[in-house]
Design a protein that fits this description.
single chain, about 325 residues, alpha/beta, Rossmann fold, Alpha-Beta Plaits, 2 domains, 5-stranded parallel sheet, elongated
């Protein structure tokens, strides 16, 4: 267990405060502070956050529930997690369910303090360490995404690669096919009713629909496949396949089935996705196109799919040079 996590003990009763502080110190905790009131605790947390706060429930000026609310507000601002444990007396037990709704994580009866304090604190250490580790990882991920956005490679709405990223990823895929064989497969999925949705719904609802479609699409493909959003109404999936025989509508029909007709709840009611899909491939025997050539070919097939109301596929072929 990490006994270096900062702990703050809040209690207006000197005796309880002394028992808790001594128990934690003897257990090896190196960073234990104490406050005599909720207001004093808030000031201390503003100076330096704690990972665990152990507070009395009933205190003058600011009780444990109000202190918890203030802690949650600070946590949101600081992108931090604080495990809040309240000390309760027997007559307060009936209000515990209400306290959980205020963001309290755990309770200890004052009568059982000596028996249960340390086991509950060790559990709090695990929870606080895990949650703050996740928050740190998320901060790092957001920083990486922000870096990509600064380089104009990421679609801000979905977090997927944008058109520039699509071109670069497809270029890498085509080079891989040229050197190692196999087939480069480009699947384009158009939200066929995107224009209609954008005209009739609030922007927030349209954004939620796009994000939901993106998330659903990512769960339908393999981890090594690349999902992007090159245009507002279009997603792309870039796939390396063993051969062009694996680059057909039937190979990826599950995507169309899962997205087309999918219902999404919005403020204006339930909306249904209308999706068109094309599956296009390139491989060595027919020549290796540029990314722009293969995408143009795939978009042409996508327009056909939208007109026919069914998925289309095709294999890119090098056009023969006209005789001079």
């Amino acid at each position: 267990m990490d006994s270096s996590l900062p702990v703050l003990v809040v209690d207006d009763a000197r005796f309880s405060r002394a028992i808790i502080t001594r128990s934690l110190t003897e257990a090896g905790f190196k960073d234990v502070r104490f406050a005599e009131s909720g207001l004093a605790a808030v000031r201390m947390l503003e100076d330096r956050p704690a990972d665990i706060v152990i507070s009395d429930w009933v205190m003058p000026e600011m009780d444990g529930l109000e202190l918890t609310r203030r802690i949650r507000d600070m946590d949101e601002i600081l992108d931090h997690f604080t495990y809040v444990m309240l000390l309760s007396s027997q007559e307060e037990m009936g209000a515990i369910s209400r306290a959980f709704e205020h963001g309290v994580d755990d309770f200890i009866s004052k009568a059982a303090l000596r028996t249960y304090l340390l086991p509950r604190v060790w559990a709090a250490c695990r929870t606080a360490g895990y949650n703050n580790g996740l928050l740190a990882s998320n901060r790092q991920l957001r920083e990486q995404i922000a870096t990509l956005e600064r380089r104009n490679m990421v679609d801000a709405l979905t977090g997927l690669g944008n058109e520039r990223f699509t071109d670069r990823a497809l270029s890498d895929l085509l080079r891989q096919v040229a050197s190692r064989g196999g087939a480069a497969c480009v699947i384009l999925i158009a939200l066929h009713n995107y224009t209609e949705l954008a005209a009739s719904l609030e922007p927030g609802d349209v954004n939620r629909i796009v994000r939901a479609a993106a998330s659903r699409l990512e769960h339908l493909v393999r981890p090594m496949d690349v999902v992007t959003r090159p245009r507002p109404d279009t997603f792309a999936v870039l796939v390396h396949q063993p051969s062009v025989e694996h680059c057909t509508c039937d190979s990826f029909r599950r995507i169309l089935v899962a997205l087309d007709g999918h219902k999404l709840e919005t403020a204006a009611g339930v909306q249904r996705l209308q999706v068109a899909m094309s599956v296009c491939a390139a491989h060595g025997p027919d020549g290796i196109p540029t990314p722009d050539e293969l995408l143009a070919f795939a978009r042409e097939r996508l327009r056909e799919a939208a007109q026919k109301g069914e998925a289309t596929d095709g294999i890119w072929q090098q056009k023969e040079s006209e005789p001079s």
